[in-house]
Amino acid sequence: MKKFVRIACLVLVVLMSLSVFAACKGNGDKDNSSQSGVTDANFSTADVQFATAEGGSVYRIIRQEGAQKIMLSAASAISKSIKAIVGKSPKNTDDSTPADANVPEILLGETNREETKTARNYLIEQSGRIGDYIIATINNKIVVYGMTDEATAEAASYFVDNYIKAEGVKGGIKYLVAKEGNFVDASINGNTKLCRYTIVRPHFNSAYLTQIEIDRLVATVEEKTGYRFNQTDDFDVKENQTEKLQTPVAEYEIIVGNSMRDGVKAITVEDEYEIRIEGKKVYLNGGSPYATAMAVTKFTDMLIGDNKIALTDANTATLSWKATEAAFSNEIYYKPTWYDEFNGTEVDTTKWTIDYENTTGYGRMGVDGKLCKRNRLDPPNSGVKDGVLYMTAEQDDEAYYGGMFYTNGTMRYTYGLLEVSNIHPKGNGFWASTWTLSDIGPNNIAYVEVDVDECYGAGTWVYGNTFAWPSSYGKSLGYKSLHVNNRYYSQDGRGFWMDFHTFGYEWDEATVRFTVDGKVYAEQDMQTDERDIDAFCMPQLIRISLSTGSSEQGMPTQDPEEWANTASYIIDYCYVYQKEGQLLFINPDPQLKR
User: Fold this and answer.
1) Up-side HSE of residue 233: CA atoms within 13 Å toward CB?
2) Is the Cβ–Cβ distance between 229 and 199 less than 8 Å?
3) CA-CA distances (angstroms) from residue 537 to 268, 415, 448, 453?
4) What is the pTM of this model?
5) Are 204 and 233 in contact (CB under 8 A)?
6) 18, pLDDT greater than 50
């Protein structure tokens, strides 16, 4: 049994079935701490009526633009409850509707209205943990707000059951529920209300390795403190547009990587990472994707892990990944086992074999009868310069030229996370991919091909493909190729040919996942078909290739601007990360058995 004080200075004893709720503060409660400047004076005590004299709804319902399904359902429940009273459905819309101080509104969740901000600040000052919510009248608005969508939905349910009445509510509304628990305090410059912080990550070219560590930070803080970090990208691009629009800057931010935020410092040493605390801002960055991920890992440990401390500006430090990694178990954390940053002036032939002048696979011909060849040797159309590997589509009277670099004979690996950062070409006839191949499986049924970021033509989508190709023996048993296409479309008008993006392929004994810019877009269970079970346990090599002019893609582009400006496949880095027990083979037998 928990006690709740309700609005009219009455005491209501409520039997709660869940142990996550604590005391509710009523109208007479004092706001003992108001760093945000929110006091009882912000809350209205005016009577609430839901029906107009003409029989319509006094209020319109406002939810956040792009709200999740749970919020849409909550808004619908409020609408139906009001309709049952007034006979008409209230207007139910999102906060792209301009605010009007003269229009009464029911504000559901994280809207852009000032009254929502006021209620949120008050809720945070009182507690602010993930189960908390508040229902309150502020000005001529009713705010229904929870620290999570789930808490907001619960607040909406309580609002429907207890406040939406034909007779209205006397004396306004102020009802707060705070979660109880055995929580640990963690602090950054004395601030223990970690829910104030927003984690900011790059919208483009963010590694899944880093996102894994961001997710671990969020989960650890929530479990131990009861607070949940907000998360956002540093900028956004509206659909069918190309302009990068910076997302709103929050007062408290944890800024990860090379994000579009003031104060971010580029780190050029591959092994180094920075944890920098400056007032209400925290900067976590590294000279490589794994160093940035380590910055997040180390910060988690310092904030709420085994080596927890009260963080202040004085804890700012630049550290070495190699000097830190031993403190973190390889059973849990990925570590780089093979990679190329493509620094220098030449391709590292200890890592890559270069395919010069050969025709592309299956002896492909161009649509107009020309040969389709790999890297041209003289003059070269591919190589390493300015910190990237590049292949540029070219043609002459006899052939089209693309490129092929592969690790056959230098490296193969079994299980792990492969990530590659690149810019794709744009133009019909340009066919680019980072992909893998394996030997035939132990039962001689099939071998593997995985396309991590196959793309051709418009440059606005990629495939994350898995293939189990049957061997000759597999074909004799009646097996056919097992092929799954996972297509991912660019989420905006910029496409994959205007910016670097990071594409990932995570592979273990049971599952493969495909990622773009740190976000998983496809996951496959590889334990449901005999062909996958047989072949997806074999070591895989990496290929990076560009094919030009293949007849399979139709007539190559005739646009001189595309040939001049968007005909290159540009790779910034390629990494293999692995955990304990996952295997790496250096200088293996170069002959694939297929």
Assistant:
1) 14
2) yes
3) 37, 8, 9, 21
4) 0.89
5) no
6) no
CB atoms within 10 A of CB 109: 26
Residue type, 213: E
SS (H, E, C) 23-64: CECCCCCCCCCCCCCCCHHHCCCCCECCECCCCCECCEEEEC
Both structure tokens of 84: 């049952």
Residue among 496, 389, 509, 410 at smallest CA distance from 452: 496
Q: Using one digit for the tens of pLDDT, what is the confidence trace for 387-405? A: 999 999 999 998 999 999 9
Instruction: Identify whether the C-beta of residue 504 lies closer than 8 Å to the C-beta of residue 573.
Output: no
pLDDT at 291: 98
Query: Is the N-terminal amide bond of 560 cis, ω within 30° of 0?
Result: no
Better-scored residue on pLDDT, 4 or 477: 477
In angstroms, rounded to a whole number, what is the distance separating the alpha carbons of residues 373 and 378?
13
Is residue 246 within a helix (H) or strand (E), and if so which, with residue range? Answer: strand 245-246
Question: What is residue 87's predicted lDDT score, i.e. its pLDDT?
Answer: 93
Q: How confident is the model at residue 247 (pLDDT cuts 50, 70, 90)?
A: very high
CB 401 within 8 A of CB 373: yes
| Sign (positive or negative) of CA dihedral 383, 387, 389, 392 | negative
Tell me the two tokens of residue 351. 């890592």
Q: Which residues contact 547 (CB under 8 A, 6 or more apart)?
A: 360, 364, 372, 402, 431, 432
Instruction: Give the sign of the dihedral formed by CA 542, CA 544, CA 547, CA 553.
Output: positive
Instruction: Give me 143's structure tokens.
Output: 């705010």
For 300, the enclosing helix (H) or strand (E) is helix 289-304
Residue-level pLDDT at 360: 84
What mean pLDDT is reported for the chain?
91
Kindly indicate the confidence band of residue 438, based on its pLDDT and cuts at 50, 70 and 90: very high
Identify the pLDDT of residue 488. Answer: 96
Distance in angstroms (rounded) separating the CA atoms of residues 320 and 336:
14
Q: Which two tokens stand for residue 589?
A: 């037998």
For residue 5, is pLDDT > 50? no
Tokens of 54: 């003409």
pLDDT bin (cut points 50, 70, 90) of residue 552 is: confident
| Main-chain dihedrals φ then ψ at residue 438, nearest 5 degrees | -130, 170
| Radius of gyration of the chain measured on its C-alpha atoms | 29
Query: According to the model, what pLDDT value does residue 37 have?
Result: 63
DSSP code at position 393? -
Do the Cβ atoms of 59 and 82 come closer than 8 Å? yes
Beta-carbon contacts of residue 57 (< 8 Å; ≥ 6 apart): 50, 51, 82, 83, 86, 88, 89, 90, 91
Question: Would you give the DSSP letter of residue 213?
Answer: H
DSSP 496: S
Q: Using CB atoms within 10 A of its CB, is residue 187 exposed (0-12), middle (13-18) or buried (19+)?
A: middle
